[in-house]
Specification:
The protein is of the alpha/beta class. It folds into four domains: 106 residues, Response regulator (Rossmann fold, 3-Layer(aba) Sandwich); 144 residues, Reverse transcriptase/Diguanylate cyclase domain (Alpha-Beta Plaits, 2-Layer Sandwich), CATH 3.30.70; 101 residues; 75 residues, Homeodomain-like (Arc Repressor Mutant, subunit A, Orthogonal Bundle), CATH 1.10.10. The protein is 59% helix and 10% strand. It contains 23 helices and nine strands. The strands form two sheets. Strands 2-1-3-4-5 form a five-stranded parallel β-sheet, with helices on both faces. It has a four-stranded antiparallel β-sheet with strand order 7-8-6-9, sandwiched between helices. The protein is elongated.
Amino acid sequence: MIDVLIVDDEPKLREGLRTFIDWESLGYRVVDTAANGKEALEKFSEYHPELVIADIRMPGMDGLQLISCLREQAPLLHILILSGYADFDYAKRAIFHRTDGYLLKPVDEEELIEYLISIRTAVEEERASLEWEHITKEWTREALVQSLLTGQKSDDHSQMMERAEEFGLLSKSYQVLLVSLHTEELVQSVLYPLRRALIERYEFNGRGWVFQLHGQVGVLLQEPLLAVEREDAYRAVELAISDMGIDFTAVLGTKVSSLNEIADSYHSARELIKMHFFLDEGKLLCQDAVHCEHEQVCSGIVPPETLTDQIYYAVDIGNAEAVKSLVRQAGSSLIAEGYTEAEIKRHFVEILTLVIGKGLKQHPELQQQSKLFSDMLAEIYHMRSAQALYGKIDCFLQQLMSNIGEKAKHREVKIMLDLIERNFSENLKLETLSGVLNYNSAYLGKLFKNETGEYFNTYLDKVRIEKAKSYLEDGLKVYQVAEKVGYTNVDYFHSKFKKYVGTSPSAYRRQSEQAW
């Protein structure tokens, strides 16, 4: 739309012009009217219209004086003059002041429409020319910024400095803000909203210059971002692409103090993006993040079998907090040991597969959820950061917990008794349970002894032997029974059975058969 300001000291004529023409259908919008030259200048400063329709004679400031003042502010402004028959010679003089034409009162509708169509064509051509000039300048400036970012050396340093000064790129300090979108399709519809948001936030405020390079969008900041500004900068990017459902990583390169060092800031930003999996926690990443200590002290990689047992038992008793803690401890250990993103994901998939395997042995009904668990495992490989990975694993284990875990809270000993009853065939160890229940193993063992009157291992043996007696009574062979109750060594099972029952497993089986 082309904005129009109507200026005339006659109220009826002002309102008549506003209403009897279908301005919108012609591509125009009347933003306001003015009763004299002084008011017209005030309204012009407020609305900046591209067309002014003004009476040639008005009290105070006449039309020619108004045109002269308007031309000083807007050389390309389009102006139509209104005049009566008595002012015809006066109106002709106005044409020499580069007005687009004049209309005799009363205004002929068709004649005004012809003028409006002609002026609209001229405005569209001017807009296109200005847009092309702006684009050309932007391309040239962005090309210079890109050459500075990539470290391309200029044969003539003084010429480069002149061009930088010409485009307003000279500053005492610089820093690169870089945004990487995690999507396979970097089409213009994705990049445009982000560029627009960054331009409005930084270029319009004289804070920096937006660029696009290697499929990433960034800003060459004229001054480094303050620590208190970083969260706002991150949220601005987040808001710009919030409707697209695209993940992103935003980073800050190092602070530099000359044009020649801009490439160093860009390179450091690119290196930070490569580390997004380990560092990205939903905030703007900077070099400080690289040197942060891990929140938890890592004591080496926990063997997959041990971690599997710990996670499974935590799931089995419904201890969600222990599950989260175990997952994050394991992740921190893997990161500290230098595992790659792919290796960490593969390690966790292996652990979770083993956990599901344990769950299926105790709860065959979980087979009905196999498709769901398989899909959730596949999603782990698509997580963009360690924090997102932990969250996905939490969801996975929560789903498993809802199927097999206890929902009510138990005292520690009752939990252990329940675990022994349901998992007597597993390699249950007090040390493993202490990690799940967040207690020292010695303290937990003492607590168990005080509550049951038995040591943990003694109680476990007794439960296993009672289960073994039942299996022997069913006619299973001794080696089969030993395996089913958790003894991998048949001789060891034989000695334990004889200790608690007073006879050998074979003899007990024969006695049972005779009793039948």
